[in-house]
Amino acid sequence: MRRLVDDGVVSSSQEYFYGLANDLAPYSNISNFSDLVVYRIGGGPQAPRSALPIGAEPAADPLRLVRVNVNRDMLHVVLAVSFAKEPDHIVSSNVAGFIYVTDIDIQRENYILAPSAGELPGRFLIVGTLTWIET
Q1: C-beta neighbour count of 41 within 10 angstroms
Q2: Torsion of the alpha carbons at 67, 72, 77 and 82, rounded to the nearest 10
């Protein structure tokens, strides 16, 4: 079953970035770490059981925004581009589309994103668990 899901994700990603008939060509765009801010929605640290009232269960806020530091682990990650103008509006804002990280240069503090012809419509990016390696 897992293989079918993986094949579906690969196929959907391929269609999104290249089109149904492979008639689209993604662009690459170099962006500085300082120009874009990456967030993860949900999760975050939980209080230990010993710090909670008796009988209470630790719970993570599913809408909590956590800023993500850019590192090599973000290579091949698919990111959503948010239309939000402020971080507090990310959860309630639409996304413009998706990009993926094709390379990260830690020394130069920039990364290469595709497909993104020209400037992105927003500076806030949302990371999830989806990765995609172009084949």
Answers
A1: 17
A2: 30
Long-range CB contacts (< 8 A, 24+ apart) of 66-73? 66/39, 66/40, 66/41, 67/37, 67/38, 67/39, 68/38, 68/39, 68/40, 68/127, 70/33, 70/38, 70/104, 70/111, 71/104, 71/106, 72/104, 72/106
96 three-state secondary structure: strand
Whose CA is closest to 77, among 10, 129, 7?
129
Which one-letter DSSP state was computed for residue 98?
A: E
**Is residue 3's pLDDT more than 60?**
no
pLDDT in tens, 13-22: 888 888 888 8
* pLDDT tens digits along 36-66: 999 999 866 666 777 777 877 767 777 889 9
